[in-house]
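note to self — DONT lose this again. spent like an hour looking for the file last time. sequence + predicted structure for the chain T wanted, 242 res
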Amino acid sequence: MSNGRPSRHIDLDGVFNLRDVGGYLCATGERTRWRRLFRSDALHRVTHADLSRFVTLGVVNILDLRASNEIEFTGLGAIMSGAFNVVSSPVRDDTATRTRGESLADRYLAYLSGDGMAQAITELSRLSSAPTIVSCFFGKDRTGTLIALVLSLVGVERDVIIADYALTSTRMGPLISLLQRDEIYRSTIERTEPSRLAADSATMRSFLNTVDERYGSPLLWATKSGIRLDIIDRLRENLLVR
């Protein structure tokens, strides 16, 4: 607890980038609920002590944005020994449209080209009636994009959304160090441009500004992508409090 508020960052043994997205102010005067929506890196390394902490946090649902082959590669680990509702909702970008030298913001825009992101947000609108963790691999790209869109849809101020994304930068160091010591992931991390492993505020600002330019706003992107207004209303009901 800090100043009477729950801790945003949650330190665990096998998870490096778990945090609460509660307490964010909306233009309406409402705030996002604490201990309702969490964002995280992959959960296959959780320990049994971590699972006990999840229970203390009240976690009921886990929304995994990774592709099925990623999940098959790592497994789900100890998470399957807990009484959690684990839901797979893959978010893929259109790799056929990738160009050399594309930015992270470009990659985030590519997540919007298929129906995966819209389906994941729709799924979250159902799950978020109870405490839910959204996760991918690093907890910054697919998860960061989804959380930014959801916070936009419920009315959180843009600068706050951007700052939330950038908080991941404080957690990437230990996660990258772990992967550099891992025989499976070491070579991939060594070949990856440092900019790909960053979580700079400029990236999220560029992404959201381009969403405005291309679609009109995150809300208009959502409705054009088949996310009904009642789904957005359900997100607001689940995630906001006066």
